Amino acid sequence: MTDINAVSSDPGHxxxxxxxxxxxxxxxxxxxxxxxxxxxxTGAVDEATYRGWLAALSADTxxxxxxxxxxxxxxxxxxxxxxxxxxxxxxxxxxxALLETEIATLASALERRRSITHLHWGGGTPTxxxxxxxxxxxxxxxxHFDIAADAELAIEIDPRTITPxxxxxxxxxxxxxxxxxxxxxxxxxxxxxxxxxPFEVTARAVDAFRAAGIDAVxxxxxxxxxxxxxxGAVRSAELAASLSPSRVALFGYAHVxxxxxxxxxxxxxxxxxxxxxxxxxxxxxxxLVEQGYRRIGLDHFAHETDSLYRQTEDGSLSRxxxxxxxxxxxxxxxxxxxxxxxxxxxxxQNTADVAAYGKAVREGRLPVTRGIARSDEDRLRWQVIERLxxxxxxxxxxxLAEHGRAADHxxxxxxxxxxxxxxxxxxxxxxxxxxxxxxxxxxxLAAAAFDEYLDRGAGRHSRAV
Length: 465
Hints:
Blueprint: H1 19-25, H2 47-55, E1 63-69, E2 71-72, E3 84-85, H3 90-110, E4 114-123, H4 131-144, E5 145-157, H5 164-173, E6 177-183, H6 187-192, H7 199-211, E7 216-223, H8 230-241, E8 247-252, H9 274-290, E9 294-296, E10 300-302, H10 307-314, E11 318-320, E12 323-325, E13 331-335, E14 340-343, E15 346-350, H11 354-362, E16 368-373, H12 376-391, E17 393-395, H13 396-402, H14 418-422, E18 426-429, E19 432-435, H15 443-448
Parallel strand pairs: 1-4, 1-13, 2-3, 4-5, 5-6, 6-7, 7-8
Antiparallel strand pairs: 8-10, 9-10, 11-12, 14-15, 15-16, 17-19, 18-19
Helix pairs in contact: 3-4, 3-11, 4-5, 5-7, 8-9
């Protein structure tokens, strides 16, 4: 175990960017984990629509599953996820039974046995489920679906609740990747976000998973948190790297108290300004690179032995609601309250109301209540947005040719990139776009140039950096 006091706190954040750029680009844009983005979902996509989409999947289409558990023991104040706190296990046990029923209902709607190539448990805190509950649910999935031999089976973890026995149970169910929430190791920051988790707790959880045979370990870190300093963000990145995770996600805190009421417990005056957020992200990122990790897209870092690194090398990296992913299945099925599925035809989201979700599932219905159908134009624009977000590059003419469109079809989007180009954040050679390394933190702004829904006023978004 690394001695927390032995790790240096040299910020190493390099030269600061001109403050004028932060005033210009400190504006809200989507995270682009989908397109069209979730604020544009409507009730036009319902259970009947969803069942039709499922029935249209070809017999050999492999599936990816996302299972959402909307419960935590305590609520972290930074959290933007659909979750709630409970000290009683009864609602969790009831919810586990509902998930088991929904899995069976989904399998029936698909009409034939399908192959699963990727599975992800998210939340909330999936490990709030007891060992026997998660074992029963994983057994249920295996009973209804064929899990591919090389499938990635991942779960999000709260390290504060993990025991060696629980780690062994997860490994026995087939789980082969765990994602540990860390955020920051500074005790003052942890107090301010209501998540006290000393370094030693995280280290013990990592040891437990590796002892159980789960070597693929991800960490989530954050910048932009209350009372967080540049030095502290860099120190947390260095401490995280000392535990040798396979991947690190370095997310910017999205302060959206109009969406998540508990975020109102974080005072605006305790948050860093845009320039400090940048220095935190830059400094922590440079520390991870210094420790042997490669930058992936906007905010991920991967070791060269990790599949995320390899898919970046071969250009097959993609992006979905879990962020950057190696998932190549053409259909992602969402299970659980608020879960979102992505099928070739569009997006479908289950109701976020747990009571309504339970009623629908008990009645044998698929609990989809909203979503959006994708048009050919949406698919074209998503390909451009996804390439920018994943590789920082996009060849517009090549994408347009693939979709059978004229070479100038997206030219009306190009003027929106002019400022980024003038400031050296993006380079354009005809219709070939490349976000520069200096522009990496602003890649969402480049992607936004191709978002024709953005000015339609449905929803508010987090800051660009």
